[in-house]
Amino acid sequence: xxxxxxELTNARKEEIIAACRMLYETMxxxxxxxxxxxxxxxxxxxSIYNYFETKEEIFLALFQQEYERFTExxxxxxxxxxxxxxxxxxxxxxxxxxxxxLMLKLLSMNxxxxxxxxxxxxxxxxxxxxxxxxxxxxxxxxxxxxxLDEQGRQTFLYAFLPFVYxxxxxxxxxxxxxQAMREAGIAYVYMSTYDMAYSFIRTVLGGLx
Length: 209
Description:
Elements: H1 6-24, H2 34-38, H3 55-80, H4 86-98, H5 101-108, H6 111-116, H7 120-144, H8 150-165, H9 167-171, H10 175-183, H11 193-208
């Protein structure tokens, strides 16, 4: 790590992550390179190695930010509401997911590559952010569904978390994929992120309380 103030270090890291975020809007994970990311920053490409050793570490940092923002959304939900009905809570959790399309995209794509090609310290920071988001969901359940015991909350969480992994590819469907489904003769109901998440959350929680 180069010498410099913590503020400069954090600013450089944030600029690198922001460049990656911008490129990922129009490019695929495999096509984005450190060179391409470096070209979007105000400093030399080789300087990136002072902060991140691999492309995957940058994506993991971006993913970490998305989990942190998801957690902030859920904490705000708890702070701003004294109580919520089952329907209101299901809707609020679905909206929180709907606001994080990048998190859902990253979750469904290349997670193993990101984790495998990142240093342990980067992976631990990411897992900490993931764990905080899981705890935030649990806090919402505790506050708004007090009749749901610990076993019920755990049952929901370990159904909810794998479900979220597949939410992006089921709701963000390309025209090419739709054409292939038609030509394959597969009847498929396309749903929005909110609609699919709300239906799942409401159904599972409704069966637990």
